[in-house]
Write a structure and sequence with these properties.
about 400 residues, alpha/beta, Rossmann fold, vWFA_dom_sf, PSMD4, UIM_dom, proteasome
């Protein structure tokens, strides 16, 4: 994890009003500050960024190297464009002095310079300052936005070659008409040289600039460690690995639960149909074995249906079928009452017919008739004797 202190030098001369880099040269510079802060702090949260301006009568220090993004961005408000000459060498020397007094002496030193106006210094002076910066282990990146002549590009390129040590410095010449200066920086070694693929993507995303991952470092060899090189910070790399594995496990668990819920929602009708079929079969078996139980059950259910007419429409098809089966087996109370009324006169008529038949059979029996007559005669004799005794 690179620990670095950087100072960004902005060109706020009148040349920065030019609109060949949308919306203007100065605004294009200011928009890159957020991306630079994000890129540096993606490398290490302790990395600090300071800002200078080199337009106007003198160099102005907006903020010394700081790790507070809000403070860094806040100093950009109120910057005015003034002067036609950029104090290029003075700005470099003041930036070097600011890096020399950085809080953490273990931080590497870097200066990023945006050039939006012609450089008037001669090559010898530039070479002298470049050697001094190299001696103090200060790396310099130059972004040239001014296309005033080939001479300037050659001077700046030679300056970078002089100050360069171990490919730590870089010169970027931006052609006019570039839609996004920030994206151009991310596609150059200025911002992506110390970033792995995932970190470069993150820094670009926070800076609101999409970039091509292949241009920002290619495939990440430390993807399982969240882009952290285990050789530089093994504890952080292991923590990132465990965190990524835990997140993956949680996502898999949520996916399984989601699939189970979908399966349960798709097949709730099958158990309901099986329960309805089982209930109907049970009712049929009960009705066959115990008709009286069926009649009593039907009476209770019919009373319940009559009492809850409003709920009748809410019955399912299986429940309606069960009601119909049970109703067909119940005895009709009106037919039963009519049958009982017709049954009583039939009994009386049958009894009368039986009495008449018995009497007819007895009259045809001669012995029975003779005995009957003798009994009648004896009865008359007794009555006559009784009358004579009364007369006496």
């Amino acid at each position: 994890m690179t620990l670095e202190a950087s100072i960004v030098i902005l060109d706020n001369t009148e040349y920065a009003r030019n609109g060949d880099h949308l919306p203007s040269r100065y605004e294009a510079q200011a928009e890159t500050i957020q991306a630079i802060i994000n890129a540096k702090q993606q490398m290490n949260m302790e990395n600090a960024v300071g800002i200078l301006t080199m337009g106007g009568p003198q160099v102005e220090v907006l903020i010394t190297p700081s790790a507070d993004p809000d403070a860094i961005l806040g100093c950009l408000f109120g910057v005015k464009l003034r002067g036609e000459k950029a104090h290029f060498l003075n700005a470099l020397q003041i930036a070097q002095l600011g890096l020399k007094h950085r809080k953490n002496k273990n931080m590497r030193q870097r200066i990023i310079v945006f050039v939006a106006s012609p450089i008037v210094e001669d090559e010898k002076t530039l070479e002298r300052v470049a050697k001094q910066l190299k001696k103090n282990n200060v790396s310099v990146d130059i972004v040239n936005l001014c296309q005033s002549g080939v001479n300037q590009i050659e001077k700046l390129d030679k300056f970078i070659q002089t100050v360069n040590s171990g490919d730590s410095s870089y010169f970027l010449n931006v052609q006019s008409g570039i839609t996004s200066l920030t994206e151009t920086l991310f596609n150059s070694p200025i911002l992506n040289r110390f970033l792995s693929g995932s970190n470069a993507n993150q820094a670009s995303s926070v800076g609101n600039v999409p970039i091509n991952p292949t241009q920002a470092g290619g495939a990440n060899p430390f993807a399982e460690y969240g882009g952290i090189d285990p050789s530089e910070d093994p504890e952080l790399a292991q923590a990132m690995k465990l965190s990524l594995e835990e997140e993956k496990r949680i996502q898999e668990q949520l996916e399984r639960e989601k699939n189970q819920q979908q399966q349960q929602q798709q097949a709730p009708s099958q158990p309901a149909q099986e329960n309805a079929t089982s209930l109907a079969q049970q009712n049929l078996n009960t009705s066959a074995n115990n008709p009286s139980f069926v009649n009593e059950t039907m009476q209770d259910e019919n009373q319940g249906l009559l009492a809850n007419k409003d709920d009748f429409d809410e019955l399912t098809e299986e429940e309606l079928m069960n009601q119909a089966i049970l109703a067909s087996q119940q005895e009709n109370p009106f037919e039963a009452q009519q049958g009982a009324e017709n049954k009583e006169p039939r009994k009386e008529q049958t009894k009368k017919e039986d009495d008449e038949s018995v009497q007819a059979n007895l009259m045809q029996d001669e012995k029975f008739v003779e005995d009957l007559l003798n009994l009648v005669g004896k009865g008359d004799e007794k009555k006559d004797d009784k009358k004579e005794n009364e007369k006496k």
